[in-house]
Design goal:
The protein is α+β, with helices and mostly antiparallel strands and 277 residues long. It is built from four helices and 18 strands. Strand 16 and strand 17 form a beta hairpin. Bound molecules: ligand LBFN2T5F. It holds the Pfam family DAP_epimerase.
């Protein structure tokens, strides 16, 4: 099976072109290929598939085999791969995802994709659509009991469910301590991604993420977008924010009542052939 390994700020994916040759058991395939000891290694697999309603379709499966509706870092990798491997030689196009149609725009120099801007659509703020159990309304700066301790959370659906906690010092945060407890908290029937956010100034935040189905990753695109929305809703930042993660920065613009625009890079690491026994 031919594959290409890519990453967006260290959030790494195995890209599989399934336009002609479709496999059946993607759940098992994701678990096998993403294993960092016995497989290729990755936070998830990205499937390139034909679409009847958009130029192309993307599916994402996490390392544990669960399927996500969307992936922000993944779709930048996906868009760059399509252009540089001559599958879709367009600088703007539409991608069918389980979270709806997403539109990437590519910035090209010397025939290479330098930056990718993704129109991530509107964040959904209504609790029942995140989904989170509780009274009607939005989840902004709300107290949640997690294993006997109270935390202030803000939650949104940014293609996938995200919960944000604002912290004083991100360097003191290990996402694997609270992350798994919040990810599977009973109030989130579809689980939630968890982002720890430190506000630096009105235009800069730092984020660490614990991902649903993947654990602690080096970055999360939808998580960075959701963190910008949450920072704006809590009046900590303006609508244009640089989000710093361990390996770099995403530039995010929140246009309330319109879209969240995310701009960043993607890197191709290597290609190969995996022998499926
Ligand atoms: N890393 C991604 C999000 C991938 C999906 C997530 N693990 C989930 O299951 O919700 C991103 O960059 O957005």
């Amino acid at each position: 099976m031919n594959f290409t390994k890519m990453h967006g700020l260290g959030n790494d994916f195995i890209i599989l072109n399934q336009l002609a040759d479709t496999q059946q058991d993607y759940v098992k395939l994701a678990q096998i290929l993403c294993d960092r000891n016995t497989g290729i290694g990755g936070d998830g697999i990205l499937l390139i598939l034909p679409s009847t309603i958009a130029d192309i379709k993307m599916r994402i499966l996490n390392i544990d085999g669960s399927e996500a509706e969307m992936c922000g870092n993944g779709i930048r990798c996906f868009a760059k791969y399509l252009y540089e491997h001559d599958i879709l030689k367009k600088t703007t196009f539409s991608v069918e995802t389980k979270a709806g149609i997403i539109k990437p725009s590519l910035q090209i120099a010397d025939q290479r994709v330098k930056q990718i801007t993704i129109d991530m659509g509107q964040p959904i703020l209504e609790r029942d659509q995140i989904p989170m159990i509780g009274p009607k309304g939005q989840v902004i700066d709300e107290i949640l009991d997690v294993a006997g301790q109270e935390y202030k959370i803000t939650s949104v659906l940014m293609g996938v469910p995200h919960t944000m906690l604002f912290v004083e010092d991100i360097t003191a945060i290990d996402p694997s301590v609270l992350g798994p407890k919040l990810e599977k908290h009973h109030k989130f029937p579809q689980n939630t991604n968890v982002n720890f956010v430190q506000v630096i100034d009105k235009h800069t935040i730092k984020v660490k993420t614990w991902e649903r189905g993947a654990g602690a990753t080096l970055a999360c695109g939808t998580g960075c977008c959701a963190s910008v929305v949450a920072s704006y809703l809590n009046d900590f930042t303006e609508d244009t924010v640089d989000v710093q993660v361990k390996l770099g920065t995403l530039h995010i613009e929140y246009r309330p009542n319109e879209s969240v625009m995310m701009t960043g890079s993607a890197i191709e690491v290597f290609s190969g052939i995996y022998d499926i026994k």
